[in-house]
Amino acid sequence: MSAATTLPPERRLARPRISIVTLSIVAFLALSVASWSYVLFGTGDTLVELFSQESWSRARTFIGELAGVGSQVRPAFLQWEKWRHAIGLAYETLAMSVLAMGFAGIGVLLTFLLAARNVAMGELAASRSLAWRSLFFVTRSLYIFTRGIPELFWAMLIIFVLSPGILPGAVALGLHNFGILGRLSAEVVENADPRPARALRAAGAGTFQMLAYGVLPQALPQFLTYLLYRWEVVIRTTIVVGFVGAGGLGRDFRLAMSWFHYTDVALLLMCYLALVVGVDLLSAWLRKLAK
C-alpha cells in the first residue's frame, strides 16, 4: 500500500492555502497594471507626451511667469503692500488650522472613551446595559461618518450656512479630523495596559475614578501626539478648503490663478511654504514635550 493511501482523507484532500499577504500582493500588482494600462492606453495620454519638448517648454514658461520674467509690472514679491497682505492671509490660515484642531480635540476628548471597546463592553465597562453599549456604536458611527466625507465637501456644504471666512473652513476641517482623531484615540484606550485600572477597581474606586486615573494618563500623551500630527496635515489642507471661499491663502490663491497674476501666486506659495515649515518645526518640538 502506498504512502498516499495511508493518509487520512482530510489530509489527502487538503489543498495548499494562499496567505492573505500573497493574495494582497497579487491583487495590488493586478490593479497597478490595470490602472497604468488605462492611463496610458485608455485615455490617450502617453509618457511620451509627458517628456515631450512642448511640455517642458510650457513648464519653463510657467516658471518664468511665476518669477516675473517678461512682466511689465513690478512683481508682487517686490512690493511691501503685497507682502503685508499675504502675511495677513497666512495668519488667517494659521488661525483656521488652530481653530479646527480645537474643535476636533474638544469633541474627541468628550467622546473617545465611549468609542473604546473595552470601556463600552469590556472589562472596563461602567455598565452592561444595552444603552451603554449603544453609545459605543453611535460614537463609532459618528467617527466613520465625519471622516468619510472629505474636508472640501464639508466646506462646500457649510459655506451655505455660514458666511465666507475662516469659520466655515475651521468647522469643515474640525469635523473631518474629529472622526480621524476619535478613531485613533479610541484604539489607544483599547491597547492601554489594563492593570492600573484593575488595581483601582480592586481598591474600591468608582468608574469615573478608574478611567480618570487608570486610563487617561496612558491615553493623553498619545492623544496629544496624534493631535499635533493632524495639525501638520491640516495646515496643508487649509489652502484646499480656501478654494471654496473659506478664507486664508487658499481663496486668494484661487483668485490669483483665475486672473493670471502669477507673481501673486509665487508670493502666496512662499508664505504658504514658510507657514508649513514653521508648523512642522513647532509641532515636532511640542510632540517631544508631550512624550
Key phrases:
globular; single chain; mainly alpha; 291 residues; MetI-like fold
Explain how this protein is built.
By secondary structure, the protein is an all-alpha fold. It has a single domain, classed as MetI-like fold. Helices cover 75% and strands 0% of the residues. Helix 10 (166-190) packs across helix 12 (207-241). The chain starts with a helix and ends with a helix. The relative contact order is 0.12. The model has no long low-confidence stretch (mean pLDDT 87).
Which residue ranges are poorly predicted, with pLDDT under 50 across at least 5 consecutive positions? none
Residue share in helix: over 70%
The tally of structural domains comes to 1
Q: What would you say the CATH architecture is?
A: Orthogonal Bundle
Q: What is the CATH fold-level name?
A: MetI-like fold
Q: CATH superfamily name?
A: MetI-like
Profile the largest sheet: none
Work out the strand percent: under 5%
SSE ordering: HHHHHHHHHHHHHH
Span from first to last CA?
Answer: 67 Å
Mean pLDDT over the full residue set: 87
The geometry reads as globular
SS summary, helix count: 14
The assigned structural class equals mainly alpha
The CATH class turns out to be Mainly Alpha
Rg (C-alpha, Å):
27 Å
